[in-house]
Amino acid sequence: MRKDFPHLGFSLFFLSVWSSLSTGMAMAKNETIPVNVGVVLDFNISLGRIGMSCISMALSEFYASHGNYKTRLVLKTRDSRRDVVGAAAAALDLIQNEEVQAILGPGSSPQANFLIGLGEKAQVPIISFSATSPSLSSLRSQYFIRATLNDSTQVPAITAIFQAFEWREAVLIYVDNEYGDGIVPYLTDALQGINVRLTYRSVISPVASDDQIREELYKLMTKQTRVFIVHMFTPLGSRVFAKADEIGMMGEGYVWILTDGLTDLLTTLSPTDINSMQGVLGVKPYVPSTKEVQSFRVRWKKKFQQDYPLDETSEPNIFGLWAYDAARALAMAVEKVGTANFSFQKSNTSNNVSTDLDPIGVSQIGPDLLQSLLSTKFKGLSGDFQIFDGQLHSTAFQIVNVIGKGEREVGFWTPKNGIIRKLSFIDTNSTTYSTSKDNIGAIVWPGEPTFVPKGWVLPVNENKLRIGVPVKDGFSEFVKVTWDANNNKTQVTGYCIDVFDAVMNSLPYAVPYEYIPFGTPDGKPLGNYNDLIYQVFLKKYDAVVGDTTIVANRSRYVDFTLPYTESGVSMIVPIKDDKSKSAWTFLKPLTWDLWMTSACFFVFIGFVIWVLEHRINEDFRGPPSHQAGTIFWFSFSTMVFAQKERIVSNLARVVMIIWFFVVLILTQSYTASLTSMLTVQQLQPTVTDINELRAKGYYIGYQQGSFVLGFLKRMNFDESKFRIYNSPEELVDLLSKGSANGGIAAAFDEIPYMKLFISQHCSKYTMVQPTYKFDGFGFAFPRGSPMVPDVSRAVLNVTEGDQMIKIEKEWFGKTNSCSDDNESSLSSNNISLDSFWGLFLITGLTSFLALIIVLAMFLHKHRDVVTGEDSVSTKIKTLATLFDEKDLSFHTFRLPDQPYSGSIEPMPAVTNFSPRPSTFSTRPNNIPFSGEQGTSSSEHGGRSSTTPGGQSLPAIVPTVELANSNQERTIIPTSTSH
Q: Is the pLDDT reported for residue 20 higher than 60?
């Protein structure tokens, strides 16, 4: 028995160890690792309560579906009590005492600004789902993760709305803290990029009283801008709209646009708050209404009512969905880190002075947890969850309109397509970015007007626009100011005034205004046009209407509308009858270049015809002087078609047909032009060039107060040669005197004045080119005035319609009929080469082609000479001699009864017949033929005929010389009889 005790003891020891190991393994199998995570939110407001409920739901539902995970997040909550210092103290407590590995929160951007530094020091990720200020990105902390959108991402959607409705001014109302300040530079730059001006920034303190809010809104009412962008959270936003509705700023003509900070919280507002925001537009990130989201809303509502029975919030907002996704992402990231050492390494401080920040430890898993978070991605309730550059990115924004008890969707905005009506209608292949208001659904504006608010009105403290008008003595058709001393009133009339009245009446809204003359009570001007324009810059006038020209230096002080008159500055000079009595008038119809070209072509055509006809036509043969005379006679006689020489060559006939056509057109044009010069009155300007005025030192004039003075100075005119006129009558007087008699040689003024003047004096004066480009008359408004685009469009409508014609007829009457005659008489009657160079080109090409063909045929026929062994000079002399001889193979040199064989045959003796002048020359039988026929011709220089080989031939009288194919001469004696 004792021997069995050891075996029994060993068995009992083995059973106890196995039992212990089995129990430990079972316990290890069911054990999870808790990971402390902090939550810092404002639990006294709906945003904090919604966020907390969504975080707790996210973790409970996540671990319920992932029971095999080894880690469990344990929430350590702290209330920041809507205070920046409170949020920082809460985070410090969580890091020091609870050793949290991450913090979800805080709820606002100012609080996050403090917490980011703590997270960086302790290497604890700060995950905020509602701190949206763009300024937080500038801190560049890798441990700050924005599980929400940056406020700057909504700016393009807001600017697209401005483009759609063509608003040009806006007022930004924002809260005075980190959240409000962050969007200002982004929004300002974006609006400036589309030519929209932020006229005012209204900054409201988060703790502003109702009286302070009301005072600020009253200030906004005194301004003309009526488009307001509101960037703040509740409850401040709700209070602002309540006061705006109270003082009448939610009525007709106003436009309110909410950023996503307030738009996302519309579901948390009370019915009273919603009622004060009727007609407001808002933008917010788009969240697809999936089955998961709908199911979550039902579960959340049930849980939220249990946790906060007194809170009337009906459904979670976008921040709640982001909180839910952020909690899930953190749980997944912690699990990926694994069962690591979730502890802090305490810092050792050697300083004698210690603070509460000194004992902050460093999380051992902080860097790994950060990388795990950045690599986590999944399909969340708010969409695809993935962190880029430390924050989420949105693909679309929803545009909503506050109507009735809530909001209504009116459109969407995407970075690729711009404003669209429905996301389901997006063409994935389209790259067109749209800002059309047609893609936005029907909007109910504040006050429920039937039209889109124009975005500005006249300030309530001003009854009428003050319109400055110039005071002047002359050209009263444009602007005329009449003073009534009895009633102490002024009457302003004129072409420019009627145009402005028509433009303002065509606007889709009423604008009251009154004309204020820029002059003294006795009718004298207070300054020139530049001085008048400057009064708008000084805000003494709201606009300037009159014959004010749009020039660059004035645009630095005002904004001009589109011009409503013709543009430019021109020169006006006297005209004189230039009907010439000169004996050389007949030369004026054609310009010198056309005369020279015609003369050259007459000689050239004569030469071409001589070359083509010399060897085959007796009319183009004879002594050199006779042939030269024939060339000139024949060519110039074609001018009157009086040539007697016959043309036998087909090539020459082709050339002459074309030349006859050119001569016909040239002579007819010459006749018509000369007739016009001798019969029509020729009115020509006395000065035709601005350089002539400068070179000869003539006096010139300009209208008093006009910008033309500066123009003349820039054109380098001598200022001592300037003379001023105030009226058309003074201008007539100066021009009639002339520069040498106390007058002027020319006047410079704008085209509208010049056309009016010419219509009254078209028989004595005319405008001379060139016209110097300027922009015409326009209406001047203050820089950045929202009226300029509307008035410019109205100007186009008026100038393109019949109303403008009626106004012009009323003030200027019908244009004098002599204007057209004057212009036609001033046009040049000279005919230039430009009108005929095509005909000369055709004639020249045809002639050269004919010459080339004849030359080629001649060289081919005498190719044995060309290819011979003689020198070049000898060849040229031989070819010249051969060319001077008759081509007896041509049909004009054959006997009438001899058939043409196409080859060269000896010609029989010819006696007793009367040959035609074009074929043979006759002589008495005892006198030899001329030397040109190859006979002895001592009387023509004593030369005997020789063959190309140099052999002398006996003189035989009479003879007929024929050239055979071997280029040798055949002398055939003939017998004669009487």
A: no
